[in-house]
Amino acid sequence: MVEFIIQSLLVTGGLGLVFGLGLALFSQKFKVEEDPRLELIQNILPGANCGACGYPGCRQLAQSILRGELGPEKCTVGGSKVVTEIANLLGIEVAEVKPGVARVKCQGDEARAFRRAEYYGINTCNAASQISGGFKQCFYGCLGLGDCVEACVFDALTMSTDNLPIVEEGKCTACGLCVKACTRKIIEIFPRENAVIIACVSPQKGPEVRKACQVGCIKCGICVKNCPKGAIHLEPSLGNLAVIDYNLCDNCGTCVEKCPTKTIVNYLRVPIHAG
């Protein structure tokens, strides 16, 4: 019996050794040589593995860049420095990358946007918006439950005391995760140089906006008439919402001063909300 067990162990061990050697030889013969530039690209990328590029990690993005499927500018977190270094490594030309920042296109916090109902459900904007379009009078503005804050992996977003998201520009990497998380689509990535924004997305007519929010765009056109650069127009496809042409805007702030509802914000001068 003992002799049988010993023989079984020897046979099993021998087979394991043979198969192991076979696998080792097979892997050596058919292994795919990895491009050494892959490791270099991965080392240049910030290593945040935030997923903003659409991949689960920086290595997958590096592989895609190396295959020529995506350009290095797809990594918004790394900024122009990372893009330039990867472009130089690969010997390719890329367009200039302007530093971006997330901006909240709404000022309708608890103090200035009116509620039409109380909400006691799951404490997320996504859940609240599923119930009759949300609990606020405005069907387009911020619900203030912080889905964007939860989505930000760089701690660049906080909620004000009146439940409006505030972007800390020094921490924002323009990754866009908050943009994806916002169920109302009121967060947008802007070039940092574009400091003046229309902080409202409601296409409703002026009287309806007034009933819902104190700081919404009422489509009065005063900003259009007073802009010295002719950079603002009322866009019919958006219900005559004011829209800024950033090819013309020089951040002078005239529209901010003239806007009767204080819908327009100049980030060079005044934060969107101090709360």
What's the number of structural domains? 2
- Gyration radius (Cα, Å) is 27 Å
CATH architecture of the largest domain: 2-Layer Sandwich
Largest sheet: 2 strands, antiparallel
Bin the helical content: 25-40%
Mean pLDDT: 89
What does this structure look like?
With 275 residues, the protein is of the alpha+beta class. The chain folds into 2 domains: 36-90, Orthogonal Bundle (3-methyladenine DNA Glycosylase II, Chain A, domain 3), CATH 1.10.15.40; 100-266, Alpha-Beta Plaits (2-Layer Sandwich), CATH 3.30.70. It is 33% helix and 11% strand. It contains 10 helices and 8 strands. A two-stranded antiparallel ribbon has the order 1-4. It has a two-stranded antiparallel sheet with strand order 2-3. Helix 2 (36-44) crosses helix 3 and helix 2 (36-44) packs antiparallel against helix 4. It starts with a helix and ends in a 9-residue tail after the last strand.
Which helices and strands occur, and which strands form pairs?
Layout: H1 2-30, H2 36-44, H3 58-66, H4 79-90, E1 100-104, H5 125-129, H6 147-151, E2 157-159, E3 165-167, H7 177-181, E4 187-191, E5 196-198, H8 206-212, H9 222-226, E6 232-235, E7 241-244, H10 254-258, E8 264-266
Antiparallel strand pairs: 1-4, 2-3, 5-8, 6-7
Helix pairs in contact: 2-3, 2-4
Short description:
With 275 residues, this protein is of the alpha+beta class. Helix content is 33%, strand content 11%.
